[in-house]
């Protein structure tokens, strides 16, 4: 067998083997490499590289070494999933740097962190005043996480509206002009409904590049033809306007009528509509 | 427009609101929203019943506009 062919076969099979190993290691590795896993990754790559080029290395020896290097971390991560103490030992604990707004100098020293580095990390998170920090901790992967004091925290929707209506994830129902039946079924809808909604917006299905349905059944589309303006869904707004109009009408009738009984009836129903409005307005507003 | 036809118009609007709320109650994914829409829908049903009663009385008072 010519040398180039052997190298090619080796490289190809090692490539496939590495691919399988990375699949076994899983997604977590990518996002959150510990120092140990980082080194293991480099070593495995190095072994694989050498093995594919250096024909002097026996394949059996190389494969054994690769298997040990790559399966040992898998074994350790399985074990640390079950045992908290083992996990703490392997992955390390986080160190608190700022507590109750006060810097803990002892902990800084223990992690060999200078105050300059701490300030730098804080600045990276747009914090320039240490006085704004309530709590800060150094995670095992070297990242600093910060909890701001309550008055310095950014405003959230919950701060403004006490009980905001919840919003589930939208589903994509048309992609590249093709109807996706599964997301439609998840929403409890079907092709007939989709056709009807598209007709309402005056859009041909062949022209739709992307269509999404939000959790209140509103359909938004993106067309191939970008010159066409698609109107935003108006149904909820129209419904809200209709309720407000009927409520106003009832108040008007109550004023106009001379019969005491009718007046009572209209006022009652106007009030009912007011409570109804209060309930559904947050849901219908957007 | 007579009072009768005005009330009829409101009744029609109410019925459309009822249908709109019903549709939303069915299509909403969030349970809390479903419940709110459903309750609102029941409330409109009550109001519709009330207004219908009133309307029959009005038709009796203004017989010339009956059925319009």
TrEMBL record, chain A:
Instruction: Name the keywords, alphabetized.
Output: Cell membrane, Membrane, Transmembrane, Transmembrane helix
Its membrane topology? Multi-pass membrane protein
The family note in this entry says: Belongs to the UPF0702 family.
This protein's source sits in the domain of life called Bacteria
Any idea where this protein resides?
Cell membrane
Q: Which residues form a coiled coil?
A: none
Task: List residues of the YetF C-terminal domain.
Answer: 82-214
Q: Which protein are we looking at?
A: Uncharacterized membrane protein YcaP (DUF421 family)
**Transmembrane intervals:** 7-26, 38-57, 63-81
Q: Name one Pfam family in it.
A: DUF421
> Can you quote a single GO CC term?
plasma membrane
TrEMBL record, chain B:
Report the Pfam families cross-referenced here.
Answer: DUF1657 (PF07870)
Source organism of the structure:
Thermaerobacillus caldiproteolyticus
State the InterPro entries in the record.
DUF1657 (IPR012452)
- This chain's protein is named DUF1657 domain-containing protein
């Amino acid at each position: 067998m010519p040398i180039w062919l052997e190298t090619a076969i080796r490289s190809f099979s090692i490539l496939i083997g590495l691919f399988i190993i990375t699949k076994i290691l899983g997604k977590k590795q990518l996002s959150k490499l510990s120092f140990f896993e980082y080194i293991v990754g480099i070593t495995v790559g190095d072994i694989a590289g050498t093995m594919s080029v250096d024909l002097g290395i026996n394949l059996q020896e190389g494969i054994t070494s690769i298997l040990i290097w790559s399966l040992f971390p898998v074994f350790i991560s399985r074990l640390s999933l079950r045992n908290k103490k083992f996990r703490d030992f392997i992955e390390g604990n986080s160190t608190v740097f700022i507590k109750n707004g006060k810097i803990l100098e002892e902990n800084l020293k223990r992690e060999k962190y200078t105050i300059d580095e701490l300030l730098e990390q804080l600045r990276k998170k747009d914090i320039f005043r240490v006085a704004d920090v309530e709590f800060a901790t150094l995670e095992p992967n070297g990242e600093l996480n910060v909890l701001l004091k309550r008055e310095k925290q950014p405003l959230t929707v919950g701060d403004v509206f006490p009980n905001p209506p919840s919003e589930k994830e939208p589903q994509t129902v048309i992609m590249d002009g093709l109807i996706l039946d599964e997301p439609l079924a998840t929403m409890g809808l079907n092709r007939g409904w989709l056709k009807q909604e598209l007709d309402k917006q005056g859009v041909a299905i062949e022209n739709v590049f992307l269509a999404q349905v939000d959790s209140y059944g509103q359909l938004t589309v993106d067309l191939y033809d970008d010159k066409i303006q698609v109107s935003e869904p108006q149904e909820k707004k129209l419904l809200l306007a209709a309720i407000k109009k009927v409520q106003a009408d009832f108040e008007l009738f109550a004023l106009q009528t001379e019969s005491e009984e009718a007046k009572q009836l209209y006022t009652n129903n106007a009030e009912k509509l007011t409570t109804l409005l209060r309930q559904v307005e947050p849901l219908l507003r957007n | 427009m007579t009072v009768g036809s005005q009330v009829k118009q409101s009744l029609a609007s109410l019925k459309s609101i009822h249908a709109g709320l019903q549709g939303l109650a069915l299509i909403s994914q969030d349970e809390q929203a479903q419940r709110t829409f459903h309750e609102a829908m029941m409330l409109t049903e009550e109001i519709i019943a009330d207004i219908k009663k009133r309307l029959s009385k009005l038709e009796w008072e203004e017989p010339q506009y009956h059925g319009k």
